[in-house]
Amino acid sequence: HELDGPQHPLHDDVVHTAIVPTTSGTLAAQATNLPDARVISGHRAHGTRVGGMSSVVGWTIRILVGAFLVLLGIFSLPLVAIVLDGDGQEGWIIPVQVVLVTLVGAAVGYAMPMLAGEGALRSRGALVGVLTGLVGVVLGLVMYFLVLSGFDSM
Asked: 48-107 pLDDT, tens per residue?
């Protein structure tokens, strides 16, 4: 059983073990006599978030959101090129693409910090979102360069 002692949540004499996040992003065990310490900290003693999702669902969401950001990075190049297709604007295509993908990646990562892992801070989620989007930008640039060059340079 997870709890030693009486199972009634209002017993103040019961010491519960809580897993609490630390400033370094790791989890540390802490003994407390608060009856709902595990709920207050947001973690169960074995590391699964209270009211959270299973690890399979979490990984599925991370993969889908990551794939969305990579695909956004890849397909943003032709979309930005269509908008900035004019005289003297060709030099702005890649910088605008990078800025847009960075902003969207940061917003998605901030909104879904679990992209950076279970229990991650919003700032870390935003950073992972930005990096994932920029991976898509680089892949898109390489892919479109190879497609437009016609593979003749190989």
From this structure: 444 456 788 889 999 999 999 999 999 999 999 999 988 888 889 999 999 999 999 999
Dist. CA 111–CA 13, nearest whole Å: 39
What distance in Å separates the CA atoms of residue 76 and residue 105, rounded to the nearest whole number? 12
| pTM for this prediction | 0.62
